[in-house]
Design goal:
By secondary structure, this protein is mainly alpha-helical. Helix content is 62%, strand content 0%. It has a domain of 89 residues: MazG-like (Helix Hairpins, Orthogonal Bundle).
Length: 132
């Protein structure tokens, strides 16, 4: 294991993913459409692990070493494709997440604050969606 893999950072991981793809001449296939499709497939593989578990079983999924290994692998696959998509599109994933949390804090105020009604699930809309 290298120092970089023992203490990874986001930029370093994105660089390693780009180098991995470049060394195999995979860049022509790493279009936004293909990366989003691959991301969806990997997310579905993660869902598959939990599909028929009860809520209680799903909460304890990491207790089984074999299942825990599968979960970590699928989480890694999802994150890898998401980071590659961000790299191709020029999206800073941490800045995008921070901005989204900021928007959600404004859209969904803490219930019970004077003068701020709690949002009902039917009222949840994204910017650009009808009703937003």
């Amino acid at each position: 294991m290298t120092e970089e893999s023992e203490h990874p950072d986001l930029a370093g991981l994105q660089r390693r993913l780009a180098e991995f793809a470049a060394a195999r001449d995979w860049q022509p296939y790493h279009t936004p459409k293909n990366l989003v499709a691959a991301l969806s497939v990997e997310a579905s593989e993660l869902v598959e692990i939990f599909q028929w578990l009860t809520p209680e079983e799903s909460a304890g999924v990491m207790a089984d070493p074999g299942t825990a290994h599968r979960v970590r692998d699928e989480v890694a696959d999802v994150l890898a494709y998401l980071l590659q998509l961000c790299e191709v599109l020029g999206v800073d994933p941490l800045a995008a997440l921070a901005a989204k949390i900021d928007r959600n804090e404004r859209r969904f105020p803490v219930p019970g604050k004077p003068g701020e009604p709690a949002a009902e699930p039917g009222e949840w809309t994204e910017p650009g969606e009808p009703g937003a």
